Amino acid sequence: MYYKYLYSILFSIFWCLSIYSQDTLGNKSININDIGVNSAAMRLSKSLNQNKSDEEVAKEYENLAKELIRNKEYTKAQEYLEKAKALYSKKKKKNEIATLSRGIARIQESQNNFSEAISNYDEASKNSTDVTFKQINSNDANRLRNNSNPSIQSNYIQQNIQLAEQQNLSDEKTESYKQLAEINLQNNQKDLALTNLEKALENSKDKTTETAIKRQMAQVYILDNQIDKAIKINTELIKNVQKDNDIKTEIEQLQILSSIYLNNNKESESIDLLKKAYNLATKKGQTYEAKRILEQLVTIYQNKKEYAKSIELYQTFLSNLEQLIKSDSSLVDSKLFEISESKIVQLEKERILQNELLSKKNTITYFLITLLIIIAIFSIFIIKTLYSIKNKNKKIALQSLRREMNPHFIFNSLNSVNQFIAQNNELEANKYLTSYSKLMRNIMENSNKDFIKLTQELEQLKEYLGLEELRFQDKFSYFIEVDENLDTDATYIPNMLIQPNLENAIWHGLRYKEEKGLLRLSVKQFNDKIIVTIEDNGIGLKQSTDSKTENQKLHKSRGLTNTKDRILLLNKLYSVSIELKIFEKRKPKTGVIVKLIFPKNIKIKNN
């Protein structure tokens, strides 16, 4: 009884010290024994701190997850794979999503979370752009759906092996052969299981995977009661890890071999291997491994009722515990990982906050840009509307100016008819009315047009001059000259812009001339211009002004003003350059020369 109480007291002391060391060094959640995990965590922290792109951060999440998988920290590994997957999902990187979904599915399958694993295998199949990879994931999902039917499972695994062989996918072949071996064991087909494990070993490219396969082969030998072969494999594994200086795996492998000896009633060999593992663990500062091995040895000694040896082991352990903890790099690594992980969590929160702020900023920016675009579109619409209204107003003004000449012309024409009737000259009256009606019909037909063909304009002018010649008999004769090289049917000029100048020549120059005058109308082409010249030998501008009565001088003539206003509107409305030039002839000659210059190729818009 004494030994039992002493054992309990020493065990309690050991446990308290273990808890103390754990709390002091901060190792509360995870046991990290590989510097690769801390290195990956620091790289991830750096990427987050530098606000690198989502793709770069996702890659660092992946790398950390791989290191955690190597250390069998599957829950943590899955957490970081999920984070990487979320970032790739934001960027719609389908192949990366497929790869990570498959990795998560494998972790879930290893933990018997089959429904979640099926979901992730399906997602991997859905997102993969590679036909082979898509089918492999689909087969794995269907394999798990038929978890209770080994025969159907084998068919899906065989399909994956064929696909992997076609594409030379070594890792997939390794995994498929391992799965097939598990099915063989369920069917108690140990020889087939060993064959498939050997094939898995042949395709394996990773030492960790090779070790796991050899351990599985050893388990099959144990199940088949081939203990010597199981011991041989585990012994070879110990030698291999010793060459690689993999202390953690060596300690673990010594415990596995010890367990085989113990289960086969070889306590002495088992204890020797555990002691060797214990000494290696304490020497290399592996506190937790030393604690577990110590518990195994104590259990064996208890079963053998050798309590003194148990107490001696605890005393030795406790005397070396402080130094062991100080030299235990795994505890330091655990603390470093905890610090790195806390920093990662904080940086993730800051990144989320930054993204939210950026998203809000972008939302405001997009709103302002959209608002500016709407304002710009609305402004353009208003400008176009105003421009259209302005053009319409100009056209209305132009039509008004053009039609303003008609009452004046009609009034004068009716006076002429009245004069013929008063003189009982019915023949001349009828002739005048016939010509007048023809002219008015042409004028009315073209009244809504700003430009007409030169041919039409010349016909109207001939009719007009004929009427005026008939009205003012023996006062003037006229002559029209048109350039032979000018295509009058293809040339457009402003409607009724020449007529007011002809009227001015007749009414203010030729009609007051004592002898018969001459009116000459010339239309010529010069380069890209049409030059219309109206020349008379009337009394001239100065004498015409001097001969007017005071009442006539007070009355402002609209003919010339109307013509100038129309030219101004036409130039603005049609972006053309129409010019009007008026010259008085030098003495001894009398009369006026009027030049109207038009561009030859006028583009008619909505004429």
Describe the overall structure.
A hairpin with a 7-residue loop joins strand 6 and strand 7 (592-599). Helices cover 73% and strands 7% of the residues. 31% of the residues are buried. It has helices at residues 2-25, 35-49, 54-70, 74-91, 94-110, 114-127, 131-145, 150-167, 170-186, 190-203, 207-223, 227-243, 247-263, 267-283, 287-303, 307-327, 329-422, 426-445, 454-471, 499-510, 541-546, 550-554, 559-574; strands at residues 451-453, 476-482, 492-494, 517-526, 529-536, 579-584, 592-599. A 5-stranded mixed beta sheet has the order 2-4-5-7-6, covered by helices on one side. A two-stranded antiparallel sheet has the order 1-3. The protein is rod-shaped, with a radius of gyration of 55 Å. The chain is an alpha+beta fold and 607 residues long. It starts with a helix and ends in an 8-residue tail after the last strand. It is built from 23 helices and 7 strands. Residues 1-7 and 9-33 have low confidence and may be disordered. It has a domain at 426-599: Histidine kinase-like ATPase, C-terminal domain (Heat Shock Protein 90, 2-Layer Sandwich), CATH 3.30.565.10.
